[in-house]
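We examine the record.
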Amino acid sequence: MLRFAVMSLALVALPVAVSAGSFTGTWHGALRLNGQSCTIQVVLAPNGSYVQTARCGTVTTEQSGSYKIFPDNEIGFTVVDWEPKTRYVVGSQVGSGHVERNAKPPGGMFKITVTGPNSMVWKDVDYGGAITMIRG
């Protein structure tokens, strides 16, 4: 009897399978990064393209590219374009510095757990962080 109860609980805990069609739209999330409040907006288009905007304080970054939904409830992002492409690095002397090119963001792979019709948790498979995303 105990084995059946444990099996039943395990089956209930499985995440709902997602498909690209049920996943499109504008998703919003929030997190704290190094003590700073940040917001994330990800727009997922039906054609498999995405645009992500992240704001932390006065800093805004953007990346775009393609995404793919995998059968094991994962979403993968491939970055094609990003902003800003450069940044100013302050030098050691007052008034000195130079401009450096920003590296291409790595994209990422996230495990998806659906928590409602318009909410899900994305867990970064490489770094372990998680964010709740709300559609709307």
